[in-house]
C-alpha cells in the first residue's frame, strides 16, 4: 500500500503585510495599538488573523496580559 505525499517544496508563501508600523512600539501602555489586536469580547486574536510574525505575536500577547493585570483592558467581557 503506497501513500502519496504532497511535495512540500511547491508551497507558496505569502509575504506578511506589516500591521504594525515601524514607529509603533509593542507596549502595554500603547492602548491604540493593543485595541486592534483584541476581539470585541476581549480575547487576543490569533496570529493568522493579526498577520503578525511569531515574535510580534509573543510581544503583543505579553503586552495585552500586562495591560489586563493593570486593568487597562478587561479580561473578558460578557454580553448577556
UniProtKB/TrEMBL annotation:
This protein's UniProt keywords: Chloroplast, Plastid, Ribonucleoprotein, Ribosomal protein, RNA-binding, rRNA-binding
UniProt cross-references to InterPro entries, sorted A to Z: Ribosomal_bS18, Ribosomal_bS18_CS, Ribosomal_bS18_sf
Homology family: Belongs to the bacterial ribosomal protein bS18 family.
Subcellular location: Plastid, Chloroplast
The protein's assembly and partners: Part of the 30S ribosomal subunit.
Pfam families to which the protein is assigned, alphabetical: Ribosomal_S18
Protein name according to UniProt: Small ribosomal subunit protein bS18c
Annotated GO MF terms: small ribosomal subunit rRNA binding; structural constituent of ribosome
Superkingdom of origin organism: Eukaryota
